Amino acid sequence: MTQQIHPILEEGIDRKVLAALRARFLTVNTERLDRALLAMSTRQQLVLRLLPLLFHVNHPRLPGYVSGLAPAGLAGYEPDAETLAEAQRLTRSFAYKPLRGQPPQPILGLYLMGSLGTVGQDERSDLDVWVCHDPELPPEQLAELRRKCDLLTAWAASQGSEAYFFLIDPVAFARGDRSGQLTSDDCGTTQHFLLLDEFYRTAIWLGGRTPLWWLVPEYEEHRYAEYAATLLAKRFIRPEDVLDLGSLASIPPGEYLGAGLWQLFKAIGSPYKSLFKLLLLEVYASEHEQVRCLSLDYKQAVYANQLAPDELDPYVAAYRRIETYLQNRGDHGRLALLRHCLYLKVNKPLSQPPRNRQKSWQRQLLERLTRDWGWDERQFALLDGRARWKVGQVDRERRALVNELTYGYRFLSELARRLQATSSINRRDFAVIGRFLSAAIERKAGKVELINLGISPDMSEHSLTLMHAFDATGEASWSLYPGSLSLPDTSNHAPVKRTRELLPLLAWGHRNGIIDAATHLSLHPGDSGLGEAELFALLNALRQAFPMPLEEPSEEALLTSSIPRQTLLLINVGLDPFSARHLPATDEGADAFRYSAARENLVLSIDQLTLNSWSELIVSHHTGPFALANCLSGYLASLPEGNPPGLQVRCFGHHAGSAIARRVEEIIGTLQHTRDEASPSQFLLQVRQHFHLFDLRSGQANHTPLNDLGALIEHLGEAHHRHRSLRLDRNVLAGEDLPLILALAKPDCLQIFYRIDGDQAELSVLDEFNALWRQRMPYRNEQSLLTPLRRFLHSMNHRRSAQLALDESNGATMEILFYRVLPAHGDRPVCVERRNPPGIDVSDPLHDVQAIVEPGGQNRPQVTLYCNHQEFSSLEHGSGLFAAVARYILAQRRLGERYPCYITDLDLSALHGGGRSQTVQYLRYKARLEAALNQAMAAG
Q1: Mean pLDDT of 651-674
Q2: What does pTM read for this prediction?
Q3: Which positions make up the signal peptide (predicted)?
Q4: DSSP letters along 285-341, please?
């Protein structure tokens, strides 16, 4: 028999040739199994050696026993004496009894697949076992078999082995039907042919039938089904000896995409292993039309009797293929990263002597490879020290990995576009993986960068130095140095990180595991005001709010926009408002926003740290007089519907720190409650003399800053044409009457409040939408103060009802309520009393002053006034309109009295396009017209 076997179907096939081919594959299989056992402990070896027996027999004392009805019997298997001895040492009562006759053998084959027996195997490598069973097994027996596999997984774990068992229906699998994952590193149902490729080149046969695929030459793969059918039909092989899992004639392009996206997902936590596989997928995808899988190269080598185990090693074969691809492209940087990936995967530190002074076959193979690469001791020492890599090396490695991940995503995106591969992968998957990568590696404002993408197992530093200083331009910054340095020594070292504010730096150290509970921090605070006790408290707050490691974002979370999950607010970091503003620290019950007689705001700065649903940690800094309002506004705007994030508020100041934190937490709770109310609501907060109005609706939070009381009243008087309630913080305008007035607001009625102050009175009106109108005017008596306003509002109501259909007008007239505001007196605070409305003397003609406002040229409205039905128009009188009306009114009065004149009726229908005007708009026009008219009367 020649070394090269080249069977041709049309020329006839010798059974001896097929037997020789099977023998070659089994030779390779035995070599791989021996190598797999060499890397295992004694107990792990026991698990692997006993697996075929445990699936072949049901014995109550053996591991994995479920019941006597569980499927048992491994096709063609007979245990050897060594295996039986191992079983008897495990369970003395076990005695093997060969089954007579031809009992059913429902377990058709057992296979290991993955890294076992390869250069990539290490002590953490798990056992992925394919349990190929009879397709005719009924559901109840399949359930028993699954329970048996679960029990074997538990037993293997007790022996120090991580084993996973996957039930395979070979007929369904050959058709491409899959349910569940088929390896512990499987992404789902989009990788049938790529998974089959990996199986054929890595699988170790443990017992049962051998793959039919072994006996079909690689050059016949394109007609695999025909070739296999002929072998069976002409009885060159027996059906009971082989297992058919299908061919690798072609790979749909969608599989490259699905597998590539899965490896991108895995690369964030395990970059070196995933990038190695990702590069192999890139090679396959680049050869799409004529792709030749590594498993076909493996089969060709066996047919050529090239059985050197090192060259047939799946990792070495994959490396060779990728190396050639990158060299042809001139991608030397990516080739260097590929070699890093392979070296770290093999995990045999060449800078250290071998264990027991004996070199493993893996170490010998790695030494040959690295000699070809031209590596030296310095390169070995660098990579072997990965467990000790700290910020500098991790950051350099991260840049290379991120570049590769970004390139991989772009390559897959372009491949999807070019091949229009949508059958197995879709936009949703691309979006999810794109967002996952973005969350892990994308830089954006305020985001705490994650630099340790599974690169170093421990980046914590034993000691660090934290320093606050000013640069040459006078800009302040915080710097973090490795080691415990004195202040002069820092000038001779480069910081590992520098930020403008403190919290982004501390959050970065915490997020990346650089600062942990055991890290000693030397502090040089400069003039920042930060003390060691506060620094310690800040780090504890970070650990409590954001324990590491963070969970990976779920697919459901990535399908939607990111939302906050946990928020930490840190108030006055490094600042003491009492010493900065020379305030007495004695008033424990005072409001933190209007403290002491000076009404000072004790919230000088807020650092906000938010962990969102994409596992991104975002830091923002708020300072200045509007720090609190800006922080609240941003926080409210980011809140998700119905599921507020966890919130912690901390203030570590020496004086009133806890009280300040509680006050801020109280405000946030009130705002959240107000926001969640069914109807649109507003919340008013006062900080010193400033007011902040939060307009809170479902999914919205608009903030309006108002500098003083006048600006507040003007804003509250704006027409808004919708019902809205206004909630006031408990200390807004303390001692003033406005909070009492606003607290009585109710929709769909008109409320009139009046306060008498000597010869002056202040009128306030809350209209049907709770807009506020306020006017100060001379006071003679309640009748003369309230009657003109009541008559005006009655006229306005009449006009409104006249615009409606008769059946709608009955409920259009709004109730008018009157209240008197009484000043504080003795122990009695300012209060409001309900009053009866004043009477209207309809016989008094001097109160009958009607105004009609219409649009005019150049956006200037035209006014027509009627006094006792006498018309005065700007068309007739021009700019002297109000003077003419004033002369007329004065002429009608006895003795020419000059008491104020009031508008009793106003029509704005033409000005607002026939639409319904809000009452506050009527009152504004009324006040302007009255001011102009009374000014003309005073001048006349």
Answers
A1: 88
A2: 0.82
A3: none
A4: HHTGGG---HHHHHHHHHHTT---HHHH-HHHHHHHHHHHHHHHHT-HHHHHHHHHH
